[in-house]
Amino acid sequence: MIRNINDVPMNAIEMEGVKDTSMAVMVGRSDGAPNFALRSITVKPGGHTPKHSHDFEHEVYVVEGHGTVLLGDQMHLIRAGDVIYVKADLEHQFKSQGESLRFLCMVPAMRDCGEPTPGSD
Amino acid sequence: MIRNINDVPMNAIEMEGVKDTSMAVMVGRSDGAPNFALRSITVKPGGHTPKHSHDFEHEVYVVEGHGTVLLGDQMHLIRAGDVIYVKADLEHQFKSQGESLRFLCMVPAMRDCGEPTPGSD
Fold it and tell me: Which domains does chain B have, with CATH numbers?
């Protein structure tokens, strides 16, 4: 299964605290992936993901653009080529800066308690 | 933890069937990642990964360059932006074409039997 991130429709993320952000699940549980899901996320200029935390980790790769990520109480600049590890239960938020920020966000397919992770389908 | 893929030393992969290929584990078990590991892999011009299969899956993102991937008995062209899902036990091989091929390769941290996955540290 091969798909290019430029050819896949993005769906707006409708969630409290999200602005101008869309997502496509590139590989997930519905593709048969048993352990983790790979999502493509675009944050338009001025947009941001929710400032939140949850009981599963993220592994992130910045594909293009500039922005910031809040990790706990620390704000960091991020740019294309950056890999970011957001451990479980750490508060985090991604924001674009100037242009769109595009990144891959990987999540485990299952939470520790054995329930599907949101957005891993 | 934030690291750019251009700032991380790459280590040559010394394995039978590999040519001119290097790897850096960007996020792995030694970083505390419990479920999956994110590795950066570069295949120099003329190089290739081994033609093999194993009991765990890959999720791959092509960062730059062109190349081919063998999936079972089918050869596919790949290019920047492509996401490739290589399911467990499927024979596969990545080759560069003309220029270096750089991709991210994610693997689960543990095999089904509970042993660490090679290259996930």
Answer: 11-108 (2.60.120.10)
Residues of B with CB under 8 A from a CB of A: 1-6, 26-27, 31-36, 38, 40, 56-57, 59, 61, 63, 69, 76, 78-79, 81-85, 87-88, 104, 106, 108
Chain B neighbors of A31, CB-CB under 8 A: 85
Question: What is the full DSSP assignment across B31-67?
Answer: GT-SSEEEEEEEEEEEEE---B--SS-EEEEEEE-EE
- In chain A the beta strands, taken as DSSP E runs, fall at 2-4, 11-12, 19-27, 36-48, 58-64, 66-71, 74-79, 82-86, 92-96, 101-108
Which pTM was predicted?
Answer: 0.95
Pair A10, A22: CB distance under 8 Å: yes
> Is there a contact between B9 and B101 (Cβ–Cβ < 8 Å)?
no
Tell me what the mean pLDDT of segment A1-24 comes to.
96
Which pLDDT belongs to residue A33? 95
Do B29 and B120 form a contact (C-beta atoms < 8 A)? yes
Q: Collect all residues of chain B within an 8 Å Cβ-Cβ radius of residue A108.
A: 34-36
